[in-house]
Amino acid sequence: MRRMLIVLAAIIVLSASGIAAAYFLLNRKGEGRRIAEKKGIPYLAIMAHRGVSDLAPEATDPAYRLALEMGADYLEADIQRTADGVLVCFHDDTLDRNTDAAQVFPGREMDSIDKFTYAELMMLDIGTWFNEKNPDRARETFHELKILTLEELIDIAESHDNRPGLYLETKSALRYPGIEKEIIDLLKSRGWIEDGASMESIEVGNDIDVDPLEDGDGEVEPAPVRIADGPARVILQSFEDESIRIMKDLAPNVPRIYLVDEELEEKKGGWNELIAIAKKYDADLGPSGYQAWPWRTGEAHRNGVLVHHYTLNKPWQMRLLRFFGTDGIFTNRTDLALKLYRRQKMQPLEEYFKRIGY
Ligand code: G3P
Ligand code: CA
Q: Could you give a GO molecular-function term held by this entry (predicted)?
């Protein structure tokens, strides 16, 4: 028994020192921050993944308004196109998981979004599924929520004293030829992208006077979010390197994130190959949390590539990734990330719902 305990203790000590060594030797502290500052991107960046989508139905008005009210750096959205050419915020390929398409359009619920007109999508309820799946977080006001257009998301982003950035993904990009130009043209028409805008570093008000490696007690008063006034007010993202190439051609000064996962890593021939693809298109990387090992992030940093990980919703995951040296996270719980990474003083959740009218 005693021997077993000694072996166990040795394993724990060795693993802990291994992780610490990896962190300090392979991912030098401060490297990510330097790269982020150069690009005008907040550090550690907090992306409201489909809004605050653990507390409200994903990609809906209340999910994004919560993120705005709490103080996320970016509103993240997946952009697709309807059969009649409207850009909408919707993640899945099909409507079956989080709408009532099976009742409204029986037999078409497994069709892809591009097979539906905008008017048809507007017949769907995108909120009730959330109440049924999460009775503890259900709210009467979530019934009959509608899919948002990209225009409406921009309206939301512009509706508050907080001015977060937009972090937009071309979802299933190969199904939507030309969607990069349509997104960029719309953002230009709304003043979010300027021709020839430089990526010079400016103060975006994200740097905080606390040690991000220490947990706080939520004692820092929230500062107004000013990302939309900076050079990285828009970040474009895609799992398709061809889409990233097009983004670079059309809007070279708009930061881009090449999204990757373990499957893609294997397919493309390894982590270094992903870094090489990102560098080829002057992009940064957006890997899954399972790819967050510090030596990988360290290698990206040595190549001048920033790393934003998805999707971290639990405090222990956020702490671990901070320790591993992430440069930013996509999260369904903006509130937890702000508290942990910024030590931001948060209001009771009901207060945020009251402020946004839900
Ligand atoms: O865009 C970052 C993250 O959202 C990628 O995964 O499937 O949630 O879009 P997904
Ligand atoms: Ca996404």
A: phosphoric diester hydrolase activity
Q: pLDDT tens digits, residue range 78-96?
A: 999 999 999 999 999 999 9
**Alpha-carbon span 315 to 341, nearest angstrom:** 10
Could you tell me the two tokens for 74? 């970016």
CATH of domain 30-356: 3.20.20.190
Angle at the Cα of 123 from the Cα atoms of 119 and 124, rounded to 5 degrees? 125
pLDDT tens-place string over residues 103-158: 999 999 999 999 999 999 999 999 999 999 999 999 999 999 999 999 999 999 99
Tokens of 282: 């002057």
Mutate to test the pocket of ligand 1, among 169, 260, 306 (most ligand atoms within 8 A of CB): 169
At residue 140, what is the residue type?
E
Ligand 1 atom with the shortest distance to the CA of 76 = 1
CA of 17 to the centre of ligand 1 (A): 32
